[in-house]
Amino acid sequence: MTWADYYDRFYDWAESTQVRYLSSLSTLGPADEVGEIIIELQVNVHAANRLLRKAVEAKLAFSGSDLVEFACINDKELATAAVRNSAERLTAEDMEYLYGEIDDEVIIEICKQRHLMLPEDLREEEYEEEEPEVIEEEEPLVETDMRVDYYCPPPKRPGFFATLFGVIAGIDMASGSNQHRHNGRCNGDCAHCPPHYGYRYGRWYYGHDHVHGCEFGGNKGSGSMD
């Protein structure tokens, strides 16, 4: 039986008749018609595989949509062989649909053969495999000087009021010293007379009489004042 007769009468036959006449086919028709009948026969997977085997042996090139149907239902090896035979018909979009239905190796092989872009998910996997693993080198331990410099706070500067009081005290001391500075002549204030030869703190030196006198002129040899 020719393919034309089988195809024209296929939908008029019962399923059993469709399967029975497969063995009498002497030729196969166009790939699109053969693919259509294989999909129709998938209710009987064994019969569908019989026709698919004939198509693989005849090197028929199927469309991407038919190949996806084969990959889902038919024998995996036969479906993969049909994909290889159909490589020249396939596009990058077809490979996207076939990804996950047939082995990745077959997808990669056909894409390289046809110079097609790999399916998106497969591109990501390929990139991850090709990307070299970066090994971080451990930095050598560097000996460091562990000496601790003790913090020495700067000397505390006197505040404004402390400085002011210091200045005032200095002025008072200077004025006081000027008030008690002796002019070198006796002024009769023996209690505040500075220490000098012959007299100290309002008293004559012990062991000396008045003849030694006061060098400021306060004693004329008799102990009297000027």
Notes on the structure:
There is one protein chain. The chain is an all-alpha fold. 46% of the residues lie in helices and 2% in strands. It has helices at residues 3-9, 15-20, 31-40, 45-57, 64-73, 76-85, 92-98, 104-114, 120-130, 160-179, and strands spanning 199-200, 203-204. Strand 1 and strand 2 (203-204) form a beta hairpin. Helix 3 (31-40) packs antiparallel against helix 4 (45-57), helix 3 runs parallel beside helix 5 (64-73) and helix 5 packs parallel to helix 7 (92-98). Mean pLDDT is 78; it is low at 206-212 and 220-226.
What is the 3D form?
rod-shaped
Based on CA atoms alone, the radius of gyration comes out at 63 Å
Number of helices: 10
Percent range for β-strand residues = under 5%
The largest pleated sheet is described as:
2 strands, antiparallel
Widest sheet: strand order? 1-2
Number of strands: 2
- Spatial gap, N to C terminus: 172 Å
The computed structural class is mainly alpha
Helix content: 40-55%
Mean pLDDT across all amino acids: 78
Unreliable stretches, pLDDT < 50, 5 or more residues? 206-212, 220-226
In terms of quaternary structure, the protein is: single chain
Order of helices and strands: HHHHHHHHHHEE
